[in-house]
TrEMBL record, chains A, B:
Its cofactor is pyridoxal 5'-phosphate. Residues 41-394 form the Aminotransferase class I/classII large domain. The keyword Transferase applies. One of its GO terms (biological process) is amino acid metabolic process. Keywords: Aminotransferase, Pyridoxal phosphate, Transferase. This is Aspartate/methionine/tyrosine aminotransferase. CDD domains: AAT_like. It comes from the Bacteria. GO terms for molecular function: pyridoxal phosphate binding; transaminase activity. InterPro entries: Aminotransferase_I/II_large (IPR004839), AspAT/PAT-like (IPR050596), PyrdxlP-dep_Trfase (IPR015424), PyrdxlP-dep_Trfase_major (IPR015421), PyrdxlP-dep_Trfase_small (IPR015422). It comes from Lacicoccus alkaliphilus DSM 16010. Belongs to the class-I pyridoxal-phosphate-dependent aminotransferase family.
Length: 405, 405
């Protein structure tokens, strides 16, 4: 097999969230019957149930009609006045000084930011530390840029006060020559938030071993139950030239259809990310960029009500899963839950396929987040509550059909 | 210097089209005075002068309001009904059968398509043939994917009936182990169209030496003076598994602000491109995708009138340049002209900086299209005619200040 086949075998996206429509189900043998009900796609949030920030579309139309060419063609890192506005808002939110001219880039989604940051840091053969479980693209990016994965365990089921990162393992990796560390906080898929102690220690290790870090804080605005969220960049432990933070309005704010993300941090890395963006996609969609002005600028109470509505759905789904003996950690931030399937005769990948076929419920198999999570599934509970509850009841029934006695 | 610095030095985008706003001019010594007049940016087309396809924005709003979540989250290769529509239109336009399910992907701009196609074909050390001059990103993509450039000369000033590709050089490269060939037709920056004879011979050589080809036909709808345009894919010489064609609505149709492009061709390569898109930016902007329904579906006469208006601007600018002893080939398709500066004391990169400073006229230096084009500049003449004429007069005056006596 040629090297390019090897690389693309690792990138296989057939089981990735949102790609389920392209799966082939023919070979699976079903037990139990079909369960009627509306299709619910837990692979991502439902922006019909939780709609985009009000007036986002109006602002897009304004950009097209009133600003026109200057909005269509921006410099590759994004239109200056929008970078200025976003840098101010993110400085305030994250407790981190951000120079809009040199330290921030607007990208096509946070996926775009992650790709550019990884491409600006990783060269073939580099050791890259990632968390298991963590966002599926992190490991794929390392493969694509021909780095070497160094997995670090997150014992997310264990601790009420910590996320559960194995700091000893992380330091061993850093001693062993890891040059880049990529992780999400809140963790995707488990929904746990790293404690201030954990973030402080991560920062200290990054500084001590001169590692570059990409921290993906995509879900950091939607925090439940008064949990404290600590922005790694705000601690001023990691040197400015070693850190890139990623965030965007695709999740909590439901603006995913506009494909917008932001990265901020080290000037030299942001410069490289822009050079890379010039050959990847030129810029985030010109007219879309202006929608960032609506971000962190939502109507009064909009964010509070949204978080409360998500908290209620979370509570109800956790209750159902626990009643049915699925082990699950309580989501501390974001919209994901990551339950363990209770002793089934099939693994999570086949369960996901079967569930889709038998009950029209779409979930993401745990193996997308690390090879060890064969007994877990991820659900994004940013859904219509009634439909989500009914779908999880069907999910639990289907699991019952395949239980090992 | 570390390898990643080497890679990013080659990607330097400071002189790339659209990035001029971020240049530093301090070190340049000026001759002659400032020339008053409105800023004209010839680095790209002016979508205020030539507006997007009517109803494109209405359709975007329809996608957001009426389709909602299904439009925001599509499979990575793009929403099925849009792929079906686009495949039918492009099949008819290009004379090539396209299977919408397997042979077509929607990307964030044609830049996105080019990046994904190159990433799906090139592995480190591969020899990649490119044309000089040709679109600046082609060579940068080869550098980024650590391929080895094999440049092929296009003698674009020479021939009325041919584009001027050196087919002997191309075959020598193929014999020498070139595995991928990337070129634009119509050629960017010169605006020449490859003859049917040239395309046929290119196809024959690709087949004979089993090379992969990416042909960028971005400007192939805007053809002047009855010039015949030959789609490489339509000749059925190149095996289906070896060819990817790229096209999009960003130029002639002025939809660049929506960031939309399309690639069609080899199933196995389209599959890889989708796997890569999954980690690069997930998908082209969801709501934007629906705007592709307006493409190839413009009001009667819209396209004919647009081409005629561009032909008139082209003719006027060519006349001005030739009167002032700038050598220039007549554009056969697209909106670019690529004149040679007549014997100046400065090279094109400094001329571009000076011109911007002294006369507020932005052009792209020839060195973006190949290291040998130190005496050339590229202009996109999709502009307000009156302003463009005035700006070219200023350009000619500024050139006069720096003429070698």
């Amino acid at each position: 097999m040629s090297p390019i086949n090897d690389i693309f075998d690792e990138l296989n996206a057939d089981l990735a969230p949102g790609q389920e429509k392209r799966l082939n189900f023919d070979e699976i043998e079903l037990k139990g019957g079909h369960l009627p009900g509306e299709t619910v796609d837990f692979s991502h949030g439902d922006v019909d149930a939780f709609e985009p920030i009000p007036e986002a579309l109006d602002n897009f139309n304004h950009g097209y009609k009133e600003i026109g060419a200057a909005q269509a063609y921006t410099v590759y890192r994004g239109r200056e006045d929008i970078r200025l506005d976003v840098a101010e808002k993110l400085s305030s939110f994250s407790g981190t000084a951000i120079d809009y001219e040199n330290e921030l880039i607007i990208t096509p989604g946070t996926q775009g930011a992650l790709f550019l940051a990884a491409g600006a840091m990783i060269t073939p053969g580099d050791k890259v530390a990632i968390i298991e479980p963590d966002y599926y693209a992190n490991r794929k990016l390392v493969h694509f840029f021909r780095g070497e994965l160094y997995p670090v365990t997150l014992d997310y089921m264990g601790h009420g006060d910590k996320a559960g990162i194995d700091l000893k393992q992380l330091e061993d990796g850093f001693k062993d020559g890891v040059s880049t560390f990529i992780f999400s906080n809140p963790n995707n898929p488990s929904g746990v938030v790293y404690s201030k102690g954990e973030i402080t220690e991560i920062g200290r290790l990054i500084k001590k071993y001169d590692v570059n870090v990409i921290v993906d804080e995509l879900y950091s605005r939607q925090v439940f139950d008064g949990r404290i969220f600590t922005h790694l960049s705000s601690l001023n432990i990691v040197p400015r030239e070693n850190i890139i933070t990623i965030i965007g309005p695709s999740k909590t704010e439901s603006l995913s259809g506009f494909r917008l993300g932001v990265a901020y941090g080290a000037k030299a890395i942001i410069d490289r990310m822009e050079q890379l963006q010039a050959i990847v996609s030129l810029r985030a969609g010109g007219y879309s960029q202006i929608v960032l002005k609506n971000w962190f600028n939502e109507p009064d109470h909009w964010m509070i009500e949204r978080i409360e509505a998500h908290r209620e759905i979370r509570n109800e789904l956790l209750r159902l899963f626990r009643e049915a003996d699925f082990e699950v950690r309580t989501t501390e931030a974001g919209s994901y839950i990551f339950p363990r399937l209770p002793g089934l005769s099939i693994d999570c990948e086949n369960f996901a396929k079967i569930l889709n076929k038998q009950a029209k419920v779409i979930v993401t198999p745990g193996t997308q987040f690390g090879p060890g999570f064969k007994d877990s599934i991820r659900l994004n509970f940013s859904q219509d509550k009634e439909k989500a509850v009914d779908a999880v009841k069907r999910l639990i029934k289907v699991a019952g059909f395949y239980k090992v006695e």
